[in-house]
Amino acid sequence: MRKFGILLKKEIRELITLQLILPLVITVVLFLAIGQTIGSEIEKIEARQPVIVADMDNTEVSSQLVAAFESAGVRPILAEESTESALLSKARAERAIGVIIIPSGLTSAFSQQHPVEIVYYSVVDNFSVLGNAKVESLNRALAAGEEFAKINALQNSGSNFNQEFFSQPIVPSPNVAIGDKVAAANPGVVLGFIGSQSTFIPIILFIVILLASQLIATAIATEKETKTLETLLSAPVARTSIVAAKLVGAGIVAGLMAIVYMFGFRSYLGGFTGGASDLFESAEIQEILQSLGLLFSTGDFVLLGLSLFFGVLAALSIALLLGAFTEDVKSVPGVISPLMVLIAIPYFLSFFVDFNTLTPALRFFVYAIPFSHPFLASSNIFLGNYSAVWYGILYQLGFFLVFVWIASRVFASDKILTMKLNFFKKKS
Q1: Which of 246, 224, 230 is nearest to 420 (CA)?
Q2: Are 185 and 91 in contact (CB under 8 A)?
Q3: Are strands 74-78 and 49-55 parallel, antiparallel or unpaired?
Q4: Residue 174 exposure: Cα atoms within 13 Å on the Cβ side
Q5: H or E, element range at 55
Q6: Are strands 116-124 and 98-102 parallel, antiparallel or unpaired?
Q7: What is the chain's pLDDT, residue by residue, as a tens digit (428 residues)?
Q8: I need a labelling partner for 415 at 20 to 30 A (CA). Which of 8, 71, 168, 339 fits?
């Protein structure tokens, strides 16, 4: 038993190294920081969200209806505008979650127990999980308005009441506004489609960048450990060709992995959604999505592909440079851990946070990470922010060229053979 204990201690000492501890510490710090950021965003969502209310009835009953909306946790902003375009412009200026139009004749309809149609617009300006929660705030306000209508009718109808009216005193007429496009549609269906698309791309991109970066760093570490890198550098081949070959090779492999994971994960999601995908394929839904600009054209797919491609190349250029500091394969996880952190930050934030609501300093930091742009590319295309996608591509291209130049300088020197981070070396 004593011998077993000695062997167990030996194995634990060999496994618990700085190469293992450093990524764990960085991961914990990362999740703490992301958790605090998401927590602050949740506090913003839980605050009273502004809603533009156009009161066309302008009576005591309609004022009480507005108060009912407010009791549900929103902040009604009364508007004098009456046209759709003017109301939506005001909603965007106030960063409101939607617009509710109270029709004229509301009081008369309630007194006669006639259902009233209320037109409302869900204003969608981002597709994060917390952003979608704003739509639920608008639904809760409308539900509170319906409860008020029932109570008001009970108080004024006496023993004569219309059962059909009490089952649905308010008939909601939903609309969705995305950018400058508006369509009569259920916000839940539209956001469900956007969620299925916006979730799929970041997951695939995250996996591909993660695996491709480890692949190229491990390849360099293996060459250094087996001394084959010395032979390669002594061959009559330009060092820039070596760097280019490694990047292109890793890029091709990353592309193949992206295709495999894309089909595999698509089937995986299909098993969970069941018939939901059939709903999005219906002619009615397709027409709605087309009118809102949510169906990618060929040019949109090309633009998205360029953003993803340069995002992967930027990650590979960093991984190539970090791989030069590896001493052996065992040191790869610790050396490339900074890259993993840079990938994880925009990956998690893109799911939960509206980047436009972040503090200027944090927003600048996130946009400075080249991988943030492909994670946001699909959402920006949906919103029609093509300039943001193009600027992101140009930034990633410049970032890639800078790091390739640095890597070429490193490989042009014989220091590539001796470069290492000394604190990874185990003390004897």
Answers
A1: 224
A2: no
A3: parallel
A4: 16
A5: strand 49-55
A6: antiparallel
A7: 677 777 777 777 766 766 667 667 777 777 777 777 767 766 666 678 899 999 999 999 889 999 999 998 889 999 888 888 899 999 988 888 899 999 998 888 888 888 889 999 998 877 776 667 777 888 889 899 888 888 877 776 655 667 777 778 888 899 998 888 888 888 878 877 777 666 677 777 788 888 888 888 888 888 877 878 777 777 777 777 878 888 878 778 777 777 776 666 566 555 544 445 555 566 777 788 888 877 788 888 888 888 888 888 888 888 888 877 777 777 777 777 778 888 888 888 777 777 777 778 888 888 998 988 988 888 888 888 899 999 999 999 999 888 888 888 887 776 676 666 554 444 44
A8: 339
Q: Which amino acid is at 348?
A: F
Residue 294, SS3 per DSSP:
coil
Domains of the chain (ranges; CATH) run 48-184 (3.40.1710.10), 192-424 (no CATH)
Token code pair at residue 80: 């004098």
DSSP string, 221-281: HHHHHTTHHHHHHHSSS-HHHHHHHHHHHHHHHHHHHHHHHHHHHHHHHHHHHTTHHHHHT
Query: Is residue 134 packed enough to be buried (19+ CB in 10 Å), middle (13-18) or exposed (0-12)?
Result: buried
- Count the residues in the chain: 428
In one-letter notation, the amino acid at residue 247 is L
Question: CA-CA distance, 309 to 254, in Å (whole number)?
Answer: 10
